[in-house]
Design goal:
With about 70 residues, this protein is mainly β. It has one domain. About 10% of the residues lie in helices and about 35% in strands. It contains one helix and five strands. A five-stranded antiparallel sheet has the order 4-3-2-1-5. β2 and β3 form a beta hairpin.
């Protein structure tokens, strides 16, 4: 998984009724776009994440096209 600053990180719900969580990558802490990432959630909360298999990166250029 590789991401850049400004990309969206989508963590898919793992149980019925749980919604996806989307956050923005504000800092890439790994080498060459690899995790961990500092992310900011819509409520302003920030966290450091090393995404698992339930996550997807929406690259900034693709997000603009949708």
């Amino acid at each position: 998984m590789r991401a850049s600053k400004g990309d969206k990180l989508v963590q898919h719900g793992r149980v019925v009724g749980q919604h996806d969580q989307e956050s923005e990558v504000v800092e890439v802490m790994g080498e060459k776009g690899e995790p961990p990432y500092r992310v900011r959630f819509p409520d302003g909360h920030e966290a450091i994440m090393s995404p698992g298999p339930d996550c997807q990166v929406k690259h900034q250029k693709n997000a603009r096209q949708q």
